[in-house]
Amino acid sequence: MCGQSNIILPPCSITFTRYNEVMKRILRLFWVLILVIVVFVISSQPVEAAGKQPQEYLPLTCDRAKGKYMPMTTLVLVPLTDSLVVHVGATAEEIAKLLFFDFAYVHGNNVAPLNAILHNGEIAYLSCSYPDYIANIVTAGDTGYFVLGVAGTLPVKEVQEIIDKLNISRLLQGELVTTVDQKNTTIALANSKPCGTLCVGLKPSSEGISKRDYKITFSEPTYSKSVRQKELVSFSVKVKNGGEFPIYAEGDNSLFLASTVKGISSLYHSSWIAPSLIARISGLLLPGDETAIVVTMGAPLRPGKYSETLQIKMGNTRVGALIPVSFSVENDNYKLGRIVSKDGSSYANFRKTPDLRGTVLGKLDVGSYVIIKGVQDAWVNIETKDGRVGWVYRPFISERL
Q1: How far apart are CA 40 and CA 159, in angstroms?
Q2: Domain limits of the chain?
Q3: Which residues contact 52 (CB under 8 A, 6 or more apart)?
Q4: β-strand pairing of 232-241 with 216-218
Q5: CB 3.0 to 4.6 Å from 195: which of 149, 171, 218, 277, for a disulfide?
């Protein structure tokens, strides 16, 4: 043992101190070696010719089935520090590839927090072919942000061109932060705030995305021209995006089919979004793509000929010509009744049993036609045009059509 035998030994504390120093040197050499290997792997990535998209390093958001996409309305500028820009004097595309390799492959993520990188006046997109197709941001994939990393001095002209092309109406400034969980390290966008000195000379668009040059065409609708009293009308119209910007299913500028009737459409069906709002397109409609809006309309129960005008709308703006719809309802000799108002009410409760305490199955709007199946005291047994059977309090039904 140290200091307790006839052999002269150094004190234990001196031995342990030297041992710790040796181990620290070994660990330092080990980490230096690891760092050299990482730098060599990153720097050895092949560099494509300038102007081409580095497709092998793009985010996996080109699959339209993945993620939720919103129209870009906000530009977020992110200063890139010297620690991120590892190659001084490299092209924007080289820096983009290096950064994306670091974000997505070294750290195990499959998305990047940037849409593009701007360096010495050059821009390299990290998204797909369309600049307006959002690369998924790790912390905010459905915000409508276009996130631009800026290395060096901001070239105002190039950034203003992006703002004008995409009709960006809001400018923010953010930063990249590193977070660590149990599985991996994530570099993400954070701390967005009003853009300060970084945005000097830039002007947001006063028109916004509603003024983009959308080119939308749609086909003649297909539907049955004649239906029976209890049948439903299946309606379909094809919509094609012939412009250069994506068209969205959600948000302020979404594309949808609507009625021109103010209030409740006579063709309203419970599957509609609202009494005069029929249906939106499903998913993202990219330039050149086509989709079909397929909806169900509730044909009126009262026999006769019916016509209504529909429209395709983007946000609050009608697109293209109006869509006339006309068909006839054939008589099946049902005994009909019509919901009327009592004491100023706008609807009648539709109940499961002939009792004021009966479960309410729904509400029938004043003016709606129903099939009368029978009467029990103060209650009328009815069937709605979509096949539901129940009871309505007799004062709410008139047999005079």
Answers
A1: 33
A2: 1-44, 55-211, 216-330, 336-398
A3: 93
A4: antiparallel
A5: 171
* Partner residues linked to 364 by β-bridges: 348
Two structure tokens written together for 239 = 């919509």
Helices and strands in the chain, H and E counts = 3, 21
Largest pairwise CA distance in the chain: 123
Q: In the block, which residue shows the tokens 């290395």?
A: 151
Q: How far apart are CA 204 and CA 76, in angstroms?
A: 12
Beta strands in 208-283 (DSSP E): 216-218, 226-228, 232-241, 255-259, 277-280
CATH architecture of structural domain 55-211: 3-Layer(aba) Sandwich (3.40)
Cα–Cα distances in Å, from 132 out to 233, 246, 309, 315? 37, 7, 33, 18
CA angle centred on 34, ends 31 and 38, rounded to 5°: 140
**HEC string of 336-401?**
EEEECCCCCCCEEEEECCCCCCCCEEEEEECCCEEEEEEEECCEEEEECCCCCEEEEEHHHEECCC
Beta bridge partners, 69, equal none
Please report the sign of the dihedral spanned by the C-alpha atoms of residue 50, residue 55, residue 58, residue 61. positive
The string of DSSP letters for 157-201 reads HHHHHHHHHHT--EEEEEEEEEEE-SS-EEEEEEEEEE--GGGTT
Q: Domain 216-330, CATH 3.50.50.60 — does that match?
A: no
Output phi, psi for 155, to 5 deg. Answer: -80, 105
Q: Kindly report the number of other CB atoms within 10 A of residue 129's CB atom.
A: 12
Class of domain 336-398: mainly beta
- 252 Cβ neighbours under 8 A, 6+ residues apart: 71, 210, 315
For the segment 226-239, what is each residue's pLDDT rounded down to a tens digit? 999 888 888 899 99
- The mean of the pLDDT values for the chain is 75
Q: How confident is the model at residue 178 (pLDDT cuts 50, 70, 90)?
A: low
Cβ atoms of 304 and 329 within 8 Å: the answer is yes
Residue 179 has pLDDT above 80, yes or no: no
CA angle 37, 41, 47 (to 5 degrees): 155
**What is the rounded average pLDDT of the residues 22-44?**
55
Q: How many other CB atoms are found less than 10 A from the CB of residue 260?
A: 14
Q: Which of 256, 322, 320, 246 is nearest to 284 (CA)?
A: 246
